[in-house]
Fold this protein.
Amino acid sequence: MSKILVFLEHSKGKLKRSSIELLSAAKNSGFEFDAVVLGTQTQEVPHEAGTYGTKVVYLFKDTKLDQYNPELYLNALESVTAESGALYILAPASSTGKDLFPRLSAKLNYACASDCSQLSFESGKPNVIKSLYSGKCQAKVSFKDGEKCVILMRANQLPINPCDTSLTCSVKELTLNSKDLTTIIKEIVKSTSEKLDLTEANIIVSGGRGLKEASNFKLLNDLAETLGATVGATRAVVDAGWVPHGMQVGQTGKTVAPTLYIAVGISGAIQHLAGMSGSKVIVAINNDANAPIFQKATYGIVGDLFEVIPQLTEEFKKALHH
């Protein structure tokens, strides 16, 4: 029978939403599936994975894996793929996933479909849909019978099954095969923000050049704090130095698919639309009624954002306090 291996990403000892989505997809496929997790900061991860139906979690508990190193991660994934005998590998289309799994697929001769937005299993084989040409069109990708493949899924695209705390899994600890490294990672500096990463966020409030200057992002921060949202930005304001690159949504930034995306002072260049067009509900706020963003928006507000945003923030506060 075909088997799936799910690569789990985690933060602060808990599974990321994107990994829970993949465990749910593996469970819904009807195939056997295992999972793999790397690093020592994994407190509840194996148990949590078990509650979503995986029977075996392969664990590389090595401090060298606590921060991403492509050579070490490739080493670990190569050995666990052989150990599990998986035909299909599911992983998040995160920055780590996009860097690591093309390497693995090339080394093991697996097909690779990256940045996918839909996943289904039909006639015992996976089928995926992915965007091409900055989201201008979509391609349906299928695989040959028995073809080994890696599938990288965007976050916030797949439904999550309820966890079952009565389910348990076995944990197999594996040892990392150390070798002489050509790359040594000294340090990875992460954002100090407590907000969810853009790719994991359910609500995003993004700002563009319509905000006029960096200090006006406070308006978005206030709205985001009220809604429990994460703040994003366009490339133009990132290039202007108003906000860090980690906040950029778009073709050269992060691809997001939240339930709610509020675009403030954003005209809607194709590069930005490529990164957020998968959002379930898009609300556009712009004083230009002809801005391209309105063609993608579910709801549009034509008006001065400096008047609209404070009013929205106040109304949301009133509604949430009732």
Summary: The chain has a mean pLDDT of 91.
